[in-house]
Amino acid sequence: xxxxxxFRVALAASALDLTGPELLPERLxxxxxxxxxxxxxxxxxxxxxxxxxxxGASDATSSIAERLQFTAGEGPCLSAHAEGxxxxxxxxxxxxxWPVFHDGLVTRTPIRGTxxxxxxxxxxxxxxxxxxxxxxxxxxxxxxxxxLAVSTEVTSVLRAEGRTSRGTDGGPAWxxxxxxxxxxxxxxxLGFLNAGLGVSSADALALLRAHAYTSGEDLDRxxxxxxxxxxxxxxxxxxxxxxx
Length: 244
Fold this sequence. Notes:
- With about 240 residues, this protein is α+β, with helices and mostly antiparallel strands.
- It folds into two domains: about 5-175, GAF domain (Beta-Lactamase, 2-Layer Sandwich); about 180-244, Arc Repressor Mutant, subunit A, CATH 1.10.10.
- Helix content is about 55%, strand content about 15%.
- It contains eleven helices and five strands.
- The protein has a five-stranded antiparallel beta sheet, with helices on both faces.
- Helix 2 runs antiparallel to helix 7 (about 145-165), helix 5 crosses helix 6 and helix 8 packs across helix 9 (about 200-215).
- The N and C termini lie far apart (about 60 Å).
């Protein structure tokens, strides 16, 4: 049985555990981690360079890795998207190329290797599949051809589902994924800072990232606290004034 055939069989079986079109990306991520020699997987979309939208992860650790990358504003998936090519990174590469992301990754997760694959076809330029390894697994053990075959299958399934199932905003129903809903809080927080501090969205995002880094929080959780008014804007304004 080929890896694609294994993928299709495992995906069909997963429908019994995770029902509902909004959970399709999570199902896909779990199946990727099951049929490939990796320990975790995540699927994300990019609507702009600073608008990364996670839609599914295979497990909690993979979700943390995605949030750490988004909080740091650097990492293999962001670079793979910017460069438009797959990136395979062991721990030494992660430490050298993305040191802020590396610090959080080794502190909060057992992940030490990543494979980041831009999705092709209908999701070219906006979709990405992240694969994660934990020792003793190693990124060099993963055949890139198998990973690319699986990523092609992921794109095919998302595209097909998007044609038949529409979500609350008229897009594919899988865009209503719980992870995407959580990330939308960041865009709300940016609006708060736009209006309250008179800063641009880019500056607001940089301010939130700086505050998240110094406080040891991830950006999604910090954004929720801002939207819930647990963190006064004048407190964030002090950070803005001190960095000006």
